[in-house]
Amino acid sequence: MEKRLTFWMALLPVIVLIAAGAGSIFVWKVGMHVPLLAGMVMAAVVALMAGWKWNAVQQMMVNGVARALPAVFILLVIGIIIGTWIAGGVIPTMIYYGLKFIHPDFFVPAVAIVTGLVSITLGSSFTSIATVGLAFMVIGEGLGFPPGLVAGAIISGAFFGDKLSPLSDTTNIAPAVAETDLFSHVKHMLWDTLPAFFIALVLYAVIGHTSVIQGADQSSIIALMDGLQSIFIIHPLLLLMPVLTIVLIIKRTPALPALLGVAIIGAVLAIVVQGETVTSVMQFMTSGYQVESGVEAVDKLLNKGGMVSMYGTIVLLVLATGLGGIMEETGAFQVLTRRMLERVKSTGSLIMLTIVSTFAVAFSTGAQFLAIILPARTFVHKYKELQIDTKNLSRCVEAAGTVGINLVPWGVPAVFAASVLEVDPMAFIPYTFLAFLVPLMNVLYGYTGWTIVKKSDRRLVK
């Protein structure tokens, strides 16, 4: 039997997923696990109808999930880091000195800048969100800023750094799939990322200034600082832990061993500096830090982390990549884009189609890797046909697949941030300005031709 999907067959899993996802977010309030499972089931049914055997469909899911396994291990270690860095006093020390020295007038743009610098050094948006981002979240709430605004600034900064860091996995995947080199890709992304980030900082400064006029509750800040001091030994030397993490990454230590190493050092600090027992530290690594201080703000800050806290995000990642495996190997995405690609005649329309298609995969699967890989594989030949340098393609799929995917409430990045920062995605998405601006910059460049490098064009190549 010939294995071929029609346009409507390829579209059906996407319709089911988006309809179920919308129902889950706006009506049922049960998260995205069931909608993603529904989309995966429909994709499997469509594949069976098209002629694939069940064993082949099952292997497609396995192949898709296999690509996510490195991310699964990193998520587990990030959960451990949160638990041990809280128990060791690292995150409480960051929060304490942040509350003491950061001026409210510059707080929100400072959040985006500092998180961005940490992320570009670490090459990991998730690690930045889970460490300095978590600290900024609590500081912001103590200063009286809306949680959604602070979370949006954290996420914008984290993905600004992730997008430009040569150490980032997505920054390496995009040029590899688009058939260009890493450093040309990074240099080319400066044209859309830096202006977008600058505009975002201006917006954060204006909105942050408006928010701070309402005033911060100094008594709650003092109570939070006193609560931290009553539980932990607060010392500036504990701030060396983030510095050590940055040094390890700069030395090109592989991400997983580096993160595991700083997690273990956090556990040692919890025992040696904070006086915790080995048993309690093992519990913190598994289920997160737990304390009842009597101060609600302190308990809200501290009671989190551990590998268990990452399970929901990991299940979401498994479901998303399982669905993506079927969609990729059955050629569903290629079927959906084939007609549109045939009509593309100009640079502007090709750039627009690349951005829209990347968002389509992002909304269909919620997975960063798939949102980058599928469009890049599909469009690379069209870029070559039109004599457009493929680093324009890698820049576009990063714009929508790495950064823009944060606009997807059920996407893995948004769900992870919501879990760590304890802010609903619908609260921070409107404030995640970078996720709106970077894709828009690429569309603007596509239709004006500015910064778009042709194969015969030697400008901007160096």
From TrEMBL:
Membrane topology: Multi-pass membrane protein
Keyword Oxidoreductase: no
PANTHER family to which the protein is assigned, alphabetical: MALATE-2H(+)/NA(+)-LACTATE ANTIPORTER, MALATE-2H(+)_NA(+)-LACTATE ANTIPORTER
Keywords: Antiport, Cell membrane, Membrane, Transmembrane, Transmembrane helix, Transport
Protein name according to UniProt: Na+/H+ antiporter NhaC
Keyword Cell membrane: yes
Pfam families hit by this protein: Na_H_antiporter (PF03553)
Lineage of the species this protein comes from: Bacteria, Bacillati, Bacillota, Bacilli, Bacillales
Domain Na+/H+ antiporter NhaC-like C-terminal: residue ranges: 157-450
InterPro entries per UniProt: Na/H_antiport_NhaC, Na/H_Antiport_NhaC-like_C, NhaC_Na-H+_Antiporter
Residue spans crossing the bilayer: 7-28, 34-52, 64-86, 106-139, 189-207, 227-249, 256-275, 308-327, 348-374, 428-453
Family, per entry: Belongs to the NhaC Na(+)/H(+) (TC 2.A.35) antiporter family.
Organism the protein comes from: Sporosarcina saromensis
Origin superkingdom: Bacteria
Subcellular location: Cell membrane
